[in-house]
């Protein structure tokens, strides 16, 4: 089974399933908010499905999933509840969860709210505290602006990174300064600039519609505001096996957040990829798949 649509709490969500039905199940949660599972599945579906039953979805209102209308509500906990309802509809007793970036935040919330549904948790470059992640991102962006001789934008990055602005103001600056980097923006995330990360099969018209849906999704998640709440105090509530995979050059999972994970997650494990950044599933795909599979199989065995 590959791409299909499954009705979850009144909306048709795009779901992909790869691998043997008897293999240990793994749910992948994409980042963003407002990205999709598209790129991850390009780079990891074949690799992970050799040993696992890989399940992914475009989150509610995102990309190929049914659109959310302007007058419909959407919260982070709607996204968490969708995970649980999908598990029940697929008849899965318990599954591992892998979250990338914003998906890592969702994975933590899901594991805390439904501890009997999640067997193990893998976090790829997660953000436990969005504001700390953005501030760290801006410090790295400042060095790129310096490299191209844009002293004004470099100073703006440093000012926001070290200032006392409100979360919405910090977010607005992050968006504006990210756009200002143009083609250099991906170099904040990964040393190689993310070349060949996306191999698009959809038409321009389809991508425009996907973008429209995603914009509604993103605006509602940020308007709700819970995305700005730090999860660092909640890490102590995780009791299941948790693997944090971090790229040394990743601006999102900063050192402060990494230290909190190491100190507070009682059954936590850390792997650092020294040459990579935020897109480990793309930058080191073979190693990433091997580490994920090994961790899930060992966790299930124990």
Could you please describe the fold and organization of this structure?
Belongs to the peptidase S33 family. It is an enzyme of class 3 (hydrolase). One of its GO terms (molecular function) is aminopeptidase activity. Helices cover 45% and strands 16% of the residues. With 302 residues, it is an alpha/beta fold. It has 2 domains: 226 residues, Rossmann fold, CATH 3.40.50.1820; 58 residues, no CATH class. Helix 1 links the parallel strand 3 and strand 4. The radius of gyration is 18 Å and the shape is globular. The model has no long low-confidence stretch (mean pLDDT 95).
Itemize the secondary structure elements and their pairings.
Layout: E1 3-8, E2 11-18, E3 25-29, H1 38-48, E4 53-57, H2 76-89, E5 95-100, H3 102-113, E6 118-124, H4 130-147, H5 151-162, H6 167-180, H7 186-189, H8 204-224, E7 242-247, H9 255-264, E8 268-273, H10 280-283, H11 285-301
Parallel strand pairs: 3-4, 3-5, 5-6, 6-7, 7-8
Antiparallel strand pairs: 1-2, 2-4
Helix pairs in contact: 1-11, 2-3, 4-5, 4-6, 5-6
């Amino acid at each position: 089974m590959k791409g299909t649509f499954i009705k979850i709490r009144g909306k048709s969500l795009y779901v992909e399933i790869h691998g043997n039905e008897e293999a240990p199940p793994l749910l992948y949660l994409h980042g963003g908010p407002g990205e999709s599972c598209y790129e991850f599945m390009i780079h990891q579906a074949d690799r992970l499905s050799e040993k696992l039953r890989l399940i992914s979805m475009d989150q509610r209102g995102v990309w190929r999933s049914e659109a959310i209308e302007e007058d419909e509500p959407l919260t982070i906990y709607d996204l968490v509840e969708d995970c649980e309802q999908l598990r029940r509809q697929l008849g899965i007793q318990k599954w591992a969860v892998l979250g990338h970036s914003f998906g890592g935040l969702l994975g933590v919330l899901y594991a805390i709210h439904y501890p009997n549904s999640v067997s193990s948790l893998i976090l790829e470059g997660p953000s436990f505290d969005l504001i700390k992640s953005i501030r760290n991102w801006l410090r790295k962006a400042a060095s790129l602006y310096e490299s191209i001789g844009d002293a004004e934008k470099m100073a703006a990055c440093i000012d926001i990174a070290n200032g006392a602005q409100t979360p919405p103001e910090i977010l607005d600056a992050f968006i504006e300064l990210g756009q200002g980097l143009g083609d250099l923006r991906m170099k904040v995330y990964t040393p190689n600039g993310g070349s060949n990360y996306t191999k698009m099969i959809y038409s321009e018209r389809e991508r425009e519609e996907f973008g429209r849906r995603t914009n509604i999704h993103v605006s509602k998640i940020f308007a709700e505001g819970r995305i700005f709440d730090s999860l660092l105090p909640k890490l102590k509530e995780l009791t299941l096996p948790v693997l944090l995979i971090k790229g040394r050059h990743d601006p999102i999972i900063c050192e402060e957040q990494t230290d909190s994970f190491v100190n507070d997650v009682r059954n936590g494990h850390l792997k650092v990829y020294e040459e990579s950044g935020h897109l480990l599933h793309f930058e080191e795909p073979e190693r990433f798949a091997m580490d994920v599979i090994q961790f899930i199989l060992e966790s299930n065995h124990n």
